[in-house]
Write a structure and sequence with these properties.
The structure holds 2 protein chains of 2 kinds. By secondary structure, chain A is α+β, with helices and mostly antiparallel strands. Chain A is built from 15 helices and 22 strands. In chain A, strand 14 and strand 15 form a beta hairpin. The chains are: A alpha+beta, B mainly alpha.
Chain lengths: 467, 331
């Protein structure tokens, strides 16, 4: 499997830590919690406190039993300011070796994305040197695979863990080959047979799609490639106009043009990961260019001089979209530009790198902002004082209530109400779901789009057919 | 000579300070925030803005830019180049890892450049207007005009993906640690073939053109005519008199290659997943990793100054007409 570098196994963006380490529980394809390190659990009525009962048959690769002290140690470590991980958790309470209480003020305490590390090997180490610990290149875990060897700048090898508490992984050996952050090396590693799995860019889809050796999987979540409208800008102040711009976009056609599978969900609004996994996807506003034209006409934007661009008070409907590089955004922007042109709206494209994009969003320095919408950033994007100039007291209130509750059911309800408001007063338009594309050799089996598409997460459940 | 070198080195200090000062402030004026790595869409979990501020404080990014500058300069004088924001490792350690990889690539590429470029230049000049000269001229112009990244990708597609003769990327094979010493050397060389070829051949084309033109000029000089008149063989005239003199400006070019030797080749290193300085710099610029950008800039500036100095000293050593000492004024 081709990965950027050895840092892929550190606690950061990748899910490769699932190869070697166990979370307490994970969400399945239906959004239900399934126990891993935890055997069972219960929670307080307000969901702010989860009590976990851990399995007692899980051991670290060196034979030491995994206990609640390891869980507490990990959460404290990840929250340590010197470690600079970006995580912050309340310190949990260990009731006994196999029982731990985790409190969380702002969300469910099941932390399905966190894996746990061996306290007995790490507690003496300096958190200031957290990212430099040799442990990350010579890890000792409790997951389906165990570490075999590490060749600097080259590879890391794992083998199926014979002492794993669950079913033994069917793929006996997994090798991570480090190819750097550039996309070309990942693709050539795949094409030459040096790797069976590579994460790649959408621009490489056509080449791989036509190659019978490979299959393509798309990891899809509640986030999406999206376009944010600057709601206090004269061009976007009218909610009817923003709705018209959404109606003018044929999202199914966008999927097709980007070579993405047509059955990826097309939705509007916002939703939780749980709702997404349960396929509780809000119905999208339809593709209805006629209705879009009616709404634009009603707002006074009419093409009076016949040049194909609408005007109002002598000002043409022309704006610049700041477009992030990567995630297929440049190609997507060109197609969105063409679709908006059909209803008399001229969108210019300003291509910018990711780091600049976030600065633009924070400063509100854009007319339209086209990048990745993250479902967990509602307060930042649409809450009080948001940078996109969106004003809706109902939305502000719902977001405040979302922040105040930890109950996942209540969160689902609040998200659904937000989506209802966004149908008539949309601050953004979801374009295309999905954020990660995997190219996988046909012989690797067990993956499927959209919920079991990430080989890094599900490696322990995959198998390989003979060549 | 020692006094000259010492004087030049002293003169270089304000120059280097100026370069790193300008770089320090310019990269901070550029849009983008290094802490945006915590907003990357690929991250699983949203990072609390308060936590980001704590991390910002840890790296001193919450302080005024001039305070950051003074601290950075003070740290550098103590040999502390800081910690990478992205990799969260000491920059010095990262450079120490990357430089050997880059040196393997660039030294071999430079040797290939010199060997092929100078040889073809000499042959082309000696056989001026022959079929061989025309072939070398057209060939070198074509190679010179081909973008390095394109050539690299085409070679990878042909020799790695299609034929499987060479690895697509990386510095060594997965079974490297189980090889004998000889096997290890061969394995490393095997991984170096394509990147060194791309880098070496592209620059050799330029060297060949330069060498040819320079040698043709020298072959018309009076001292060469005189050597011929004295009855030296054509081989002696070319090798001992013409080529040696034609090589003098080439020394300047190679002296100025010093920053390239340690700076690496950004695109080629990225294509071949070569963990050298070039790739490190590209990733740092993209991620606004200020400590790495500053360290690599400082290194490039220092090596450029040193390269100039070495070229000047070498020039004086091989060309008796050039003197490093100030000459007394004519009365």
């Amino acid at each position: 499997m081709a990965v950027p570098n050895a840092e892929a196994v550190k606690p950061d963006a990748w899910d490769l830590d699932y190869l070697m380490f166990l979370p307490l529980a994970t969400q399945n394809e239906r959004g239900e919690l399934e126990g891993r390190l935890a055997r069972s659990w219960e929670h307080s009525p307000d969901h702010r406190e989860y009590t976990y009962h851990l399995r007692t048959d899980v051991r670290w690769d060196d034979g030491v039993p995994v206990t609640a002290h390891d869980v507490k140690f990990t959460l404290d470590l990840l929250s340590h300011p010197d470690a600079a991980t970006g995580y912050r958790f309340e310190s949990p309470t260990v009731l006994d070796d196999s029982t731990i209480v985790i409190r969380s003020a702002d969300g469910p305490g099941y932390l399905d994305d966190i894996v746990y590390y061996p306290r007995h090997l790490l507690e003496e180490l300096d958190p200031k040197r957290f990212w430099q610990w040799d442990f990350w290149t010579h890890p000792v875990g409790d997951g389906p695979y165990r570490f075999v060897r590490y060749v600097p700048q080259t590879m890391m090898e794992f083998e199926a863990n014979p002492a794993y508490y669950g079913a033994k992984p069917r793929i006996a050996r997994v090798i991570l080959t480090f190819v750097g952050e550039a996309g070309a090396a990942e693709l050539t590693a795949l094409l030459s047979g040096d790797a069976d799995i590579a994460r790649a860019d959408l621009s490489q889809l056509p080449q791989i799609a036509s190659d019978p050796r490979f299959r393509i999987y798309h990891k899809v979540g509640p986030g999406a490639r999206a376009i944010y409208w600057k709601c206090d800008h004269p061009l976007f102040r009218d909610p009817g106009v923003r709705r018209a711009l959404t109606l003018a976009l044929d999202r199914r056609e966008l999927l097709q043009l980007l070579n993405l599978p047509g059955d990826l969900p097309v939705t509007d609004g916002v939703f939780t990961d749980r709702q997404f996994r349960r396929r509780e996807w809000p119905e999208p506003l339809p593709y209805d260019p006629e209705q879009a034209r009616v709404l634009l006409d009603a707002a006074g934007w009419v093409d009076r001089d016949g040049d194909g661009i609408r005007e109002k008070a002598g000002r043409p409907y022309r704006f610049t979209a700041s477009v992030g590089n990567g995630f297929g955004m440049p190609q997507l922007a060109v197609y969105v530009q063409a679709q908006l042109r059909r209803v008399g709206v001229q969108m210019e494209i300003q291509l910018l790198e990711g780091s600049v994009m976030w600065g633009k969003l924070r400063a509100g320095d854009f007319e339209a902002w086209m990048y990745i919408h993250q479902s967990g950033s509602l307060r930042r994007d649409f809450g009080k004082g948001n940078p996109i100039g969106y004003r809706n007291d109902g939305v502000f209130d719902l977001i405040d209530r979302l922040t105040a509750t930890a109950d996942p059911h209540e969160k689902d309800r609040l998200y659904a109400r937000l989506t209802e408001i966004f149908r008539t007063d949309p601050p953004f338009t979801r374009l295309v779901s999905g954020s990660t594309t995997w190219f996988v050799h046909r012989r690797v089996q067990g993956l499927s789009t959209p919920f079991r598409s990430a080989p890094d997460t599900y490696m322990g459940d995959l198998w390989v057919e003979p060549r | 000579v020692i006094r000259y070198i010492a004087k030049r080195l002293l003169q270089a200090i304000p120059l280097l300070l100026g370069i790193i000062t300008i770089t320090f402030f310019i990269i901070r004026l550029a849009p983008g925030d290094p802490m945006d790595i915590y907003l990357e869409p690929t991250r699983q979990r949203q990072v609390d803005p308060e936590v980001i501020e704590l991390i910002r404080k840890k790296y001193g990014l919450d302080q005024p830019v001039y305070v950051q500058y003074v601290k950075w300069v003070a740290n550098v004088t103590r040999g502390d180049l800081g910690e990478s924001y992205r990799h969260r490792r000491p920059v010095r350690a990262m450079l120490a890892e990357a430089i050997p990889y880059t040196l393997q690539l660039t030294v071999l590429a430079l040797l290939l450049d010199a060997l092929v470029g100078i040889t073809l230049g000499i042959v082309s000049a000696v056989k001026q207007y022959s079929r061989l000269d025309k072939t070398v001229t057209i060939g070198s112009l074509i190679v010179y005009a081909i973008p390095g990244f394109w050539l690299a990708l085409m070679l990878v597609l042909l020799f790695s993906v299609q034929l499987g003769w060479f690895p697509t990327s990386q510095t060594r094979s997965m079974d490297y640690e189980f090889l004998s010493l000889g096997g290890k050397i061969l394995d490393r060389l095997w991984h170096l073939v394509l990147p060194v070829f791309v880098m070496g051949v592209a620059s050799a084309a330029g060297t060949a053109r330069y060498m040819r033109n320079r040698l043709l000029e020298v072959l018309n000089e009076e001292y060469v005519v005189a050597a011929r008149a004295r009855g030296f063989s054509e081989r002696t005239v070319i090798v001992k008199h013409a080529v040696r003199n034609a090589l003098i400006p080439i020394i300047t070019i190679y002296g100025l290659s010093l920053p390239f030797l340690l700076g690496g080749a950004t695109i080629i290193e990225s294509i071949f997943a070569w963990p050298g300085m070039g790739r490190l710099t590209v990733e740092a610029v993209g991620g606004r990793d200020y400590p790495i950008i500053m360290a690599t800039t400082m290194m490039a500036a220092t090596l450029t100054v040193l390269g100039n100095l070495i070229a000047d000293v070498a020039y004086a050593a091989v060309d008796p007409r050039v003197s490093l000492e100030a000459k007394p004024r004519a009365p």
